[in-house]
Design goal:
It contains five helices and seven strands; from the N terminus they run ββββαβαβααβα. The protein is of the alpha/beta class and about 170 residues long. The longest helix has 20 residues.
Length: about 170
């Protein structure tokens, strides 16, 4: 998996959104110029296929086949120091692997609830894989939901990545 994040301190252009249809939902990338300031999943079914901008095609290819894709993105630096530690740790979890909140907390010398809060505040849920962190007694939440459509999406993402790893081994 080759994802290279270039963290940017500012993003000054007018915001615009690029939709990435994938997994039956849409990843909405909100950008200011070339800097992504948010990458959140949208549950609504994506609009009919249209010509996608290069960025959307590259992100979709990375999500579908991360081990055979190279993606470099500019993301806006935001959040607390602790949240940034959580997000950096999330970025190191390989495709097809999950950790519990407690396991990630131990790596960060923190507490599971603090790690869960850092995951919940992740503005880049479609890029920085907070879905790979689960509760010790189940799947856990996703994008601020304890159950519902986003948790179902988390399950689909994990199932997809698991199948992807099995077919490559």
């Amino acid at each position: 998996m080759t994802l290279h994040i270039v963290w940017q301190p500012t993003a000054d252009a007018e915001p615009h959104t690029v939709g990435v249809p994938v997994f039956g939902v849409e990843l909405a990338l909100t950008l200011r110029g070339s800097v992504i300031i948010d990458a959140s999943w949208q549950i609504e079914a994506p609009a009919a296929e249209k010509t996608l901008p290069d960025l959307a095609l590259q992100v979709r290819q990375y999500l579908l086949d991360p081990d055979n894709s190279h993606l470099q993105l500019e993301l806006l630096i935001q959040g607390s120091k602790f949240s940034n530690r959580v997000w950096n740790a999330l970025s190191t979890i390989p495709v097809g692997v999950t950790l519990t909140y407690a396991e990630l907390a131990k790596r960060l010398d923190s507490a599971p609830r603090a790690v869960a809060a850092g995951c919940r505040r992740n503005p880049y849920a479609g890029i920085i894989p907070c879905h790979r962190v689960v509760a010790s007694n189940g799947i856990g939440g996703f994008m601020g939901q304890a159950d519902g459509e986003f948790v179902a999406l988390k399950s689909r993402l994990l199932d997809y990545e698991s199948r992807l790893c099995r077919t490559k081994s």
